[in-house]
Task: inverse folding
């Protein structure tokens, strides 16, 4: 079952002969037709007998909740005011409210360990929460499904890029939730010192006909963040020990002292070490990533010396342990 099939069956069950679907009834390849039809939306829906809105479906392929056998119904708020029965039509709006409530109720500060975070006013430009003790800020993003995925949609690209070197750039907190069970399944925090230009992707600008023509949003490519920069607070519904979270956070704080360029090199070498897939490795195994690093930094003609330099910085800051003979070991956070 998909949403369209369920909508067709629902319309037939309700005795309706015709069904209007925007994505099918408007030629998506004809911009002139789309502009014309969008201008008529008010009259199209004003003349409808019934409007079916699939607000709670996780995707267009999932069907309509309650109508499809595979999806349960979603609770809706309702009330009667002066004899008029009102029903809330936006159950998905509550997902933002209850995930933010969860953060306010359950989350501690991953930077200093303070047991609570303070919610910022709704009109705050980037961040959603702040630690009242260390003043670190957190931006909260939530996703439905079984995993966090590799991409997180975010706000204005230019704003995000401008804040990369700012001390007030917020950490990213990503919640993965089960909307039906109303459960937070995974919570991962990416510290701000892992934000480099390589993980900020510009989305295509809005078309000239859009209300905010030319505006560019951004995506956070968390799949490009090394393992050390994806700090899980909860995994598959099970909280991680707080001491482990704080130790892992502390183990990479040295990146805050590095410039954006230097941080970029360090993070790329950390990702190369992750890709080796072993706690112990040798210099030649890191050299195997020379071509990839050369493609990222085409103006650098001395990639191997640069790799050795980054390994030394990682060693000096306790991220790696030098075993001698060109061999290294990833240190476990204390």
Result:
């Amino acid at each position: 079952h998909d949403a369209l099939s369920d909508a067709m069956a629902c319309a037939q069950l309700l005795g309706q002969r015709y069904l209007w679907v925007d994505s099918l009834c408007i030629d998506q390849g004809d911009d002139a037709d789309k502009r014309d039809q969008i201008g008529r939306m008010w009259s199209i829906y004003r003349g409808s007998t019934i409007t079916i809105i699939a607000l709670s479906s996780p995707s267009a392929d999932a069907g309509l909740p309650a109508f499809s056998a595979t999806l349960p119904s979603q609770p809706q708020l309702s009330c009667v005011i002066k004899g008029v029965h009102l029903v809330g039509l936006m159950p998905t709006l509550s997902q933002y409210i209850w995930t933010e409530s969860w953060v306010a109720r359950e989350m501690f500060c991953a930077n200093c360990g303070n047991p609570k975070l303070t919610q910022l006013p709704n009109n705050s430009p980037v961040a959603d929460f702040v630690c009242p003790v260390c003043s670190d800020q957190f931006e909260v993003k939530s996703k439905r499904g079984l995993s966090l995925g590799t991409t997180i949609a975010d706000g204005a690209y230019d704003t995000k890029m401008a804040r990369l070197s700012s001390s007030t750039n917020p950490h990213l907190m990503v919640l993965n939730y089960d909307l039906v069970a109303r459960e937070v399944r995974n919570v991962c925090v990416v510290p701000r010192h892992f934000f480099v230009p390589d993980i900020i992707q510009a989305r295509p600008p809005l078309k000239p006909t859009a209300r905010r023509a030319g505006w560019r949003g951004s995506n956070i490519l968390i799949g490009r963040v090394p393992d050390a920069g994806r700090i899980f607070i909860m995994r598959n519904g099970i909280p991680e020990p707080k001491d482990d979270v704080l130790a892992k956070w502390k183990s990479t704080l040295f990146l805050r002292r590095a410039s954006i360029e230097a941080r970029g090199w360090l993070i790329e070498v950390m990702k190369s070490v992750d890709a080796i897939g072993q706690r112990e490795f040798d210099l030649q195994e890191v050299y195997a990533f020379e071509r990839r690093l050369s493609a990222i930094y085409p103006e650098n003609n001395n990639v191997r010396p640069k790799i050795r330099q980054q390994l030394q910085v990682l060693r000096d800051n306790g991220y790696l342990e030098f075993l001698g003979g060109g061999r290294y070991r990833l240190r476990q956070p204390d």
